[in-house]
Specification:
The protein is α+β, with helices and mostly antiparallel strands. Helices cover 11% and strands 26% of the residues. The protein has one domain (3-73). A four-stranded mixed β-sheet has the order 1-3-2-4, covered by helices on one side. The longest helix has 9 residues, at 3-11. The protein starts with a helix and ends in a 12-residue tail after the last strand.
């Protein structure tokens, strides 16, 4: 994902919504020529702390349900499975 793509996605969001990030406790670079680490995603996160826009390399909706879960993918990519177990 490029900066300009992220900006376009975020322009469509509530501009007062807080941001959350997810990177599996590692640094993550969104390079189009490297697919082995997943994709940078943008989604609406529901949490006990309220709604957030989440940015990162998450690969499932149920990050820590019922505390944190993806309600809607915002990046236009494939939908996420509820869980991958």
């Amino acid at each position: 994902m490029k900066v300009k793509e992220l900006i376009e996605i975020l322009k469509k969001c509530d501009q007062e919504m807080p941001i959350a990030t997810h990177a599996n406790n590692h640094e993550y670079m969104s390079k189009t020529d490297i697919d082995s680490h997943g994709k940078c995603r943008v989604a609406l996160l529901k949490s006990y702390g309220g709604d957030h826009v989440i940015i990162g390399n998450f690969s499932r909706k149920e990050l820590n349900k019922p505390n944190w879960y993806i309600e809607k993918v915002l990046d236009g990519g494939d939908d996420l499975p509820d869980d991958w177990r």
